């Protein structure tokens, strides 16, 4: 195997990796937004909101992502809803990971000490201010390691959208292996690229987590304490 041949193989795989990253970032941003909305609905004082959020979470977590992708791409057209592969893939990944993030966010918020809520009320903060300034920064520190794990899982799960003909890294590898009959080499390269992307993402999350876990970060005398900034 020559370097020129490897370069020839890397071209379509690099293009596929670019689309994989696009899938990841689009799905991750939307999943965070969906997760927060469902989390607040799950903790709402309105029973119908709590029930709706809980039903959504249970259905999504109780069915495979692959089935959800098939339902969106192949099932919805029977109802007159037709989407191209890429938006369908983003929607499926968003719906799936949004449900898991909703529970993650809820656990993080509920882990914040009640004394913080009482202190924020004593300062006369509105509910939005309490969430933005007091609760969410502390919840983020608690959930950040798990959030990083979910991000790595999302990168790898983008490979499932290949089954609905979305051109990304896995699909590029399938097409290249079919054209060259060098499956061992091609899928080894695909695996190496996934490993590289996950390694970089893991490093970024470790660096951010290290900053969030600075000793004394939430101490009363710390400049980082949200209450001292009010």
From TrEMBL:
The keyword Transport applies. PROSITE patterns: ABC_TM1. It comes from the Bacteria. Pfam families: BPD_transp_1. Keywords: Amino-acid transport, Cell membrane, Membrane, Transmembrane, Transmembrane helix, Transport. The chain crosses the membrane at residues 20-43, 55-75, 81-102, 139-164, 184-205. Residues 17-205 form the ABC transmembrane type-1 domain. One of its GO terms (cellular component) is ATP-binding cassette (ABC) transporter complex. It is a multi-pass membrane protein. GO terms for biological process: amino acid transport. It is found in: Cell inner membrane; Cell membrane. InterPro entries: AA_ABC_transptr_permease_3TM, ArtM/GltK/GlnP/TcyL/YhdX-like, MetI-like, MetI-like_sf. GO terms for molecular function: transmembrane transporter activity. SUPFAM superfamilies: MetI-like. Part of the binding-protein-dependent transport system for glutamine; probably responsible for the translocation of the substrate across the membrane. Belongs to the binding-protein-dependent transport system permease family. HisMQ subfamily. NCBIfam families: HEQRo_perm_3TM. This is Putative glutamine transport system permease protein GlnP. The lineage of its organism: Bacteria, Pseudomonadati, Pseudomonadota, Betaproteobacteria, Burkholderiales.
